[in-house]
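PROTOCOL LOG
Step 1. Enter all chains and additional molecules of the complex.
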Amino acid sequence: MALDLIFLVRTLVFPGFIFLLVLVLFFDWFERKVAARFQNRMGPSYAGPFGILQPIADYIKLFSKEDITPKQTNKLLFVAAPILAFSFFVFALFYIPIDGSNVILNSSFEGDLLLVLLLVTLANFGIFLSGWASLNPYSGIGATRVLTQFLGYDIPLILLAIGPAFLAKSLSIVNITASQSIPFVLLIPWSCALFIIVLQAELEKDPFDIPHAETEIVGGYETEYSGRKLAFIKLSEDFQFLIGAALVTVLFLGGSNGPVLFGMPEIWHIFWFIVKTLGVVFVLEYVGNVAARLRIDQVVHGNWKLLIPLSVLSLALTIGIEPLLRSVIG
Amino acid sequence: MEMFEDAVDVLKKNLEDAILEFRVPKPRKAYVLLKPERHRDAISLLLKQVENAELSTITGTDLGNEIELNYHMACGGTITIKSRVPREKPVIRTITDILPGANLYEREVFDLLGVIFEGHPNLQRLMLPENWPQGDYPLRRDWKPHANQENSFVSEETSQTETEDLKDAGSIINVIVGPQHPVLHEPEMFSFKVDGETVVDVEVRLGYVHRGIEKAAERMMYFQNVYLVERICGICNAAHTTCFCQAVEDIGNIDTPPRALYLRTIIHELNRVHSHLLLLGVAGHLLGFEALFQHVWRDREPVMDIVERITGNRLMSGFNTIGGVRRDIDPNTIEKTLKTVKEVRKRTTFYKKVFEEDPTLRLRTEGVGVLSRSDALKFCVVGPVARGSGIAMDVRKDDPYAAYEEIPFNVVSYKECDTWARLMVRAEEVLESLDILDYALSHLPSGRLRVRVQRKIPEGEAVSRVEAPRGELIHYIKSDGTAYPYRVKVRAPTLANLMAFPDAIRGAFIADIPSVIGSLDPCFSCTDRMAFLDTKNGQKWHWSLDDVNNSKNRKALI
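Step 2. Run joint prediction.
Step 3. Record the structure below.
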């Protein structure tokens, strides 16, 4: 019985669903504020101190809006796709050790890194389906762009994620994090830099925000969505963003490892995790704000001709100098 | 300037038998009345003899028994070739086979005056809705908006997408951009045929922002019309008023004081600076470079402040008037303006460097939307678009007005012919404009601001051209000796540049649509100014997504 209670609390409240939701909203705010400052704007300022409540206000607004389902859409897919994408992302986030262990205790297993990457992929198919079900030319083009872009970045993303796994001799995220007494970013910085660039494409941020390039195809795959369903799409985008940043944190920055100064170590784990992830968000926003949007053909060409060879090279280099690195790790 | 005199000589020599009347009332302005059907000879002669000769526009004027067609040819100055057709049977041979750029102008005259151009490849309505009653030509003098206008409309449900060639076929789908779309800041419709991500073809539909300004101008007095033409376009309002006032001053033989000419130049150049900066920012936005967009617009703001300080208004300056300008500039403001000019120059130099060096920007703009020099001449494009295609034409240099004869500056042109070149032309032109401002402010002559002008303007006609931020702007005014103009014709630069758009976009990617549209810097409120519509009929085309999705179901709701 006691175990069940812990299970329930961890899943639903902390560090599970509610905590993740708050975290995602906080990251949403941080991202918007950073982007605004890069662009010499104010960013969210009115709702709460420094506008920190703006994301909540936005979601409340979206949930109270009229929810329109266009006549000619495939209703089941149209409704299910955003929820599907959203749940995949939440599920994937459950495997990220935020306070030093997974959300569901002892659920970590050898290979959950691949599971997380798989879930993110599946969620992207959910997003694709949401656009495809809309039966709108803009959504259709946006949806095909999601898949085309996905063809480009998915392989380098997995190749680059293998690097840290190889150094840690484990495919379990918890183990990878635990073995980073020295963060891997110091050992294999090239891999981390490439990972961040590829991640930019995965997160559909500039210069890769092609699937919803507003000046080209209006809203892309989300053109037809409104109200609650749009809220789900926006939420899944926010979750995706957190997963992306968190992946960099756990794979290259040592996850929640960090000095415990006083009190409960769990608090410090969470603190270090959030601080590192915020740092990653800052870098992602920086990259996104100094570039123009590329074209889909340029992205696919760039990925296949440049990023895949580079990722293979980076992985080879990691494997090659691994004995040397191991002596550093000790 | 020699170019113009040569052109006049050539015309006189070769077409002696056809010329009924030949007048050169002002330097660089010639009016040639030809025998019927001889206009083609004159135009092809000019195209052959004069390098970079283009057709500015075609003005149709209803003279009562006849309809006069004025072909305004830009060749150093303006040679207006006149040809008359009887009103009962208004038929004339097209010139589109000689000069494809005349296409839209002929359609416009057909639409609004009912002149039929024999041999035109696609003589359809340009501005008015498709179901506008047949035989109703708003720009004819006797046309009045009738009370039962609504009922006389063809009630059949016609639609742009109903046409056979716009239906989906195979892998080709139609992507409709507009009338409402984030890339367009004004309502206009582009219908793209898309195969995957590649644009196969495009159709442009104009006319969503008709305000009937040309018709309205005939019912207002000249000095009232200054404010009317100012409202043709917000962003280049000084260009429109300068152009209009010049034309009226031309007819009335009014000598504008030199200080007024300098002040006009100053406000005109400030207009150009903020218009170009606006476009460079918008280009950043269209290419997904939000940070660039926000920063350029921030640095554009001081220019707006200066405009406000000089004219009392950020945008609609209300500065020019017939015979001069309405407000003076004080020494404090001059000092402040010079300081701002310095600041803006620093920032613009930086942005120019960004456009030159940023790899993502270059990836997106280089080799995109190519408009070759010969095509540009063929379609008679103007302004930065022409200069981006290597044609160094600029009304300020070719046909100097206001104070431009005395002010040194360079005409910027790039040979790359692509979107990048068109953007670079604008970036560099801002720097030139700032130099012009520097010069004009420090060489400002003293004297009167304006001369008093009578309400009645003597009989006559005048063509006036200025280099608006988007290119050559031309006004043609015909006066019958009263306080009201007989005919006002405006051709804004966007209409000239729009013809070239389908050619530039064919074969490009969907993702290039915004940047190519943007690099033409379209201003549709300028373009759609001439038809008369009452509010009810103004809202013609509505789109529901059913229309877009389902070809069986496509219809425009009225």
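Step 4. Note key features.
The CA atoms of residues 383 and 471 of chain B lie 3 Å apart.
Chain B has two domains: 2-128, 213-525.
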